[in-house]
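User: Please predict the structure of the protein below. I'd like the answer in structure-token form so I can feed it into my own downstream comparison script.

Assistant: Understood. Taking the following sequence of 490 residues as input:
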Amino acid sequence: MSKQNWFLALGAFAAGAALIVGYAEISSRTATPTPRVAAAITPAPVETRTPPTSRAELQMSYAPIVKQVTPSVVNVYATTISQNSRSPFVGDPFFRRFFGDGPFMDSRPRTSQSLGSGVIVDAAGVVLTNHHVIEGATDIRISTTDGQEYPVDLVLDDPKTDLAVLKVRDPKGTSFPALQFADSDQLEVGDLVLAIGNPFGVGQTVTSGIVSALARTGVESDNYEFFIQTDAAINPGNSGGALVDIEGRLIGINTAIVSRSGGSVGIGFAIPANMAKLVAETGIAGGALVRPWFGARLQSVTTDLADSLGLGHARGALISDIAPGGPAEKTGFRDGDVILSVDGFAIEQPSAFDFRLATKPVGATAEIEYFRGGKSEKKVVSLEAPPQAGAPVTVSGNTRFSGTTVETITPAVAQELGLSYTAKGVLVRTVERDSPADDMGLRAGDLILNLNGRDIADAETFGKVANDRPRSWRVVLQRGGRIFRAEVGG
């Protein structure tokens, strides 16, 4: 077969079975192809191309966005002083006799430093980071991309969202480059994102990815889980860093990963910008963070519940209990109502409802769509602050309860603790280390119900009774859902 016939055969094969049949009619000695085959190998017109006229045409790149946003992302250094000793026998004279005061028995305070990231959100030097980055810190500093280091003050700490607001202590007239917040409700799965931070302390690093999912829950134990999930690499040290869109706007604060090794496996989570913006603005204004309280317990809607209610499929948040006199009761909600949306945003589970309310200010209103009796209806709720019951009471002086800080159990506190709305007693918020109360065994989270036969209805009553001087104390408290009774010396 001639060289030309080989080329004809290849062209015919690419064109399909019909052309192969045409090729079979050609003699191996014939150099002229049939018109049928010739049509199959007619060369296409040459495309006219011109060289790139700009860098943007030469190379698609995130570099312009990175240059724009990276000066707004800082490193956060948090120093913590630990009182833990290396040995549990530090105070035992027998062991000191043999080991002395060497390293094994060293009980001096120790300092440790954690490293995270932060985002400048105001030109005056306001930085947003994670609560867990600065938790327990005695000294916090930031460093910017130009190598400058600044001491900062903690102006707002919000463990419920795992966010904290820092402020440069002495900006000396410096105007800091601040990132603009985006509306995180406009995000869609598949949108391109960049994650910026300082992973493993190697230095500022940028990774790219997409929005993998929205409204993720079950990631952390805070009360407002509604995370953005991304496959942009997030590692230890990225916490508090920025998740930005392709316009360079802040869409989230990186906060957590799912990992078995400690490194990124493509499952990272960020706190949505709409929540972060509320916390940042409160910190900038210097106010206290007060969130609306609905006054009802919610639970997920299972498939069985949805079938029994005639809901069609499992969605929404079922009201299972209502606080007497709370906003939900005053608006006319009932046990068994299923909340479907808030201000037009669909509610698939209780955490979504909590998030929607938490991003709205006290004094505003919310339109809530709910399902009752086989049909959906709407109500407008006035958003109120949780009920207050006076300031916490701290006990000091010569008493067994010295070092205890308690607060009255209001319906809002009862909901926080998973108690009945009618629960009585006082909640132990904090216990000073090595105080008489600590020595007695009290713990934060205990509920003190009765002292020496007297019911404790509020923090003020506890403060008065705790300063008595009896020979002994009969204490009734609740811990972990169980009631304990104990008698200790006065």
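That's the full token string. The radius of gyration is 33 Å.
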